[in-house]
From TrEMBL:
UniProt keywords, alphabetically: Oxidoreductase
Keyword hit for Chloroplast: no
Protein known as: NADPH-quinone reductase
Transmembrane segments: none
Recorded family membership: Belongs to the NAD(P)H dehydrogenase (quinone) family.
Pfam family, one: Flavodoxin_2
Lineage of producing organism: Bacteria, Pseudomonadati, Pseudomonadota, Betaproteobacteria, Burkholderiales
Segments forming a coiled coil: none
Keyword field contains Disulfide bond: no
Segments forming domain Flavodoxin-like fold: 4-176
InterPro entries: Flavodoxin_fold, Flavoprotein-like_sf, NAD(P)H_dehydrogenase_qn
Taxonomy, superkingdom: Bacteria
Length: 195
């Protein structure tokens, strides 16, 4: 059971106050009450440029503002991502963040003769928590949860993170107070369980 948990708050609104923020707080509260250590990376509070070329990704330096985030990911045994589904995918800010930090030497290392290289973030599990306006079943079954699967397989799994679980929270505009409370309680329970 993981004792060191990193919460990656990836709602792009730096003002906070969204369901993703409340879910992350509930998760953190549950984890802390259970005696776990929690660190939070709030992506919207970080200042970093987007990568614009392969050369930037291969030869550029990770911005100093993101080095503490890399250290938190290295420290953690379990990662929990919170973000809203925007245009059927993760917000661009989260994608830009992941492109900056998941560089060779930190997340993976090229190995001659092995096109996948060596995964450097093994030994960590993850949970991906996504809020959305559409019903979660529609996203899962009609759209095949394609963007979450891409994050899990092509980014997290590629660098060795696993197992990866997901929580899809649909119909957020119609949850009401009782529905929000149920999800907050579930997040606190998941935090306490470390999963």
């Amino acid at each position: 059971m993981p004792e060191r948990i990193a919460l990656i708050q990836a709602h792009p609104d730096p003002a906070g106050g969204h369901l993703c923020h409340a879910l992350a707080r509930a998760y953190a509260d549950g984890a802390l009450r259970a005696g776990r250590e929690v660190r939070v990376i709030d992506v919207a509070q970080l200042d970093f440029p987007l990568l614009r070329s392969q050369k930037d990704w291969l030869e550029g330096e990770v911005p100093a503002s993101l080095r503490p985030a890399q250290e938190t990911l290295r420290w953690a045994q379990h990662l929990v991502f919170f973000f809203p589904l925007w245009l059927g995918d993760m917000p661009a800010l989260l994608k830009g963040f992941l492109e900056q930090i998941a560089r060779r030497g930190f997340a993976f290392e090229p190995v001659e003769g092995n096109p996948l290289g060596r995964k450097l973030l093994t030994g960590r599990s993850a949970r991906v928590i996504v809020t959305m306006g559409m019903p979660a079943q529609v996203y899962r079954w009609y759209f095949r949860a394609h963007s979450v699967k891409s994050l899990e397989r092509n980014i997290l799994g590629f660098v060795g993170i696993g197992p990866i679980h997901e929580t899809l929270i649909g119909g957020v505009d119609g949850l009401g107070e009782a529905g929000v409370r149920r999800w907050l309680d579930e997040m606190a329970e998941r935090g306490a369980a470390g999963g």
